[in-house]
Amino acid sequence: MEEITDILQIPVEDRSERDIAKVVEFLSTFSAARCQFLPNSAKRYISKCAVLEVFSRAATVIAEPNDQLNAWAIVLEGKLCYCHKNEKFIFNQGDTFGVKPVLTPQHIAGVLFTLCDDCKLLCVAQKDLFAAFNEDQQ
Q1: Sign of torsion, CA 96 3 118 46?
Q2: Cα separation of 123 and 96, whole Å?
Q3: 20-31 tens-digit pLDDT
Q4: Which CATH superfamily is domain 2-137 in?
Q5: What is the H or E stretch that residue 127 is in?
Q6: Crossing angle of the two packed helices 17-29 and 40-49, in degrees rounded to 10
Q7: Where are the domains of the chain?
Q8: Burial class (CB in 10 A: 0-12, 13-18, 19+), 64
Q9: Using an 8 Å Cβ cutoff, are 23 and 8 in contact?
Q10: E strands, 1-138, where?
Q11: pTM of the prediction?
């Protein structure tokens, strides 16, 4: 996992083909269900543009009601909590959340926050996620 987080910290334009291949391999074997079924072309595109987001403190609010979502993420380390009305959902390592691969604005209904220190997320911007899923059609 450390190797992947190190790669995700490299500026996108400076990643080597080896770096991209390592992230593609990671996406192919990671337990995030959505990743296992992504076409290889989408995994490669995502691997080129994914970045690491680190939230150093527990209880950090990542999104509040009506915030516009701008990324799709995989929890690499840590736990997050999503609360809406009387419901609570915990995101653990390997879980995914965020935007769908479309360009229309999407908003969160509840609150999303970290449950522990040093939560690490692999994040893909909405425009890049859209491009990854539509690359074959372009």
Answers
A1: negative
A2: 10
A3: 999 988 887 765
A4: Jelly Rolls (2.60.120.10)
A5: helix 126-134
A6: 120
A7: 2-137
A8: exposed
A9: yes
A10: 51-55, 61-63, 68-69, 71-77, 80-84, 87-91, 96-98, 106-107, 111-114, 119-125
A11: 0.91
